[in-house]
């Protein structure tokens, strides 16, 4: 049997900066348009490699974009090098993506101690909502969050 340890990890790499794409996100060609004050916008093209068997954009690729957008919104309000992870998520697929570039707009909706809640909507090139996404993240101990105001907007969940 071939030794594949060098291929399967554990891996160590350096991020370009605190708010930048990791290798998986670069693989999906995600681009960070903005990330500040608990909000983020990211884009991703629909390449044929991201298609499912019926020729539509794979749901996993769309969820990855939404999740990463919330991550970047979180990173914009916490100290660099803070460790945190998605602990739950819910996705609703609203409309198929057949072509073009998709855009995720995300925000942190609530924070209590080490738990952060976020939401994202992914849009197609016609600005039609194709996916809604809510998630919960947990930070490592002894980390602080910058003081920001969470604004209720239509469709936001700030009850956390």
Q: If you had to describe this structure to a student in words, what would you say it looks like?
A:
- This protein has 160 residues and is of the alpha+beta class.
- 16% of the residues lie in helices and 34% in strands.
- It is built from 3 helices and 6 strands, in the order ααββαββββ.
- It has helices spanning 5-8, 23-27, 59-75; strands at 31-36, 39-45, 84-93, 101-112, 115-123, 129-139.
- It has a 6-stranded antiparallel β-sheet with strand order 1-2-4-5-6-3, with helices on one face.
- The longest helix is centred in the middle third of the chain and has 17 residues, at 59-75.
- The chain is globular and about 45 Å long.
- The N and C termini lie far apart (49 Å).
- Residues 153-160 have low confidence and may be disordered.
How would you summarize the topology of this molecule?
Layout: H1 5-8, H2 23-27, E1 31-36, E2 39-45, H3 59-75, E3 84-93, E4 101-112, E5 115-123, E6 129-139
Antiparallel strand pairs: 1-2, 2-4, 3-6, 4-5, 5-6
């Amino acid at each position: 049997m071939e030794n594949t340890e060098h291929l399967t990890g554990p891996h160590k790499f350096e991020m370009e900066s605190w708010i930048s794409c990791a290798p998986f996100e670069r693989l999906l060609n995600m681009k960070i348009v903005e990330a500040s004050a608990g909000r983020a916008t990211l884009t991703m093209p629909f390449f044929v490699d991201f298609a499912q068997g019926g020729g539509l954009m794979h749901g996993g690729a769309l969820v990855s974009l939404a999740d990463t957008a919330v991550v970047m919104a979180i990173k914009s309000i916490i100290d660099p090098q803070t460790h945190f992870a998605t602990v739950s998520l819910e996705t609703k697929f609203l409309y198929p993506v057949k072509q073009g570039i998709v855009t995720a707009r995300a925000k942190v909706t609530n924070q209590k101690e080490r738990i952060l809640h976020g939401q994202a909507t992914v849009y197609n090139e016609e600005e039609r909502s194709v996916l809604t996404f809510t998630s919960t993240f947990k930070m490592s101990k002894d980390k602080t969050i910058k003081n920001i105001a969470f604004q209720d907007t239509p469709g936001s969940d700030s009850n956390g």
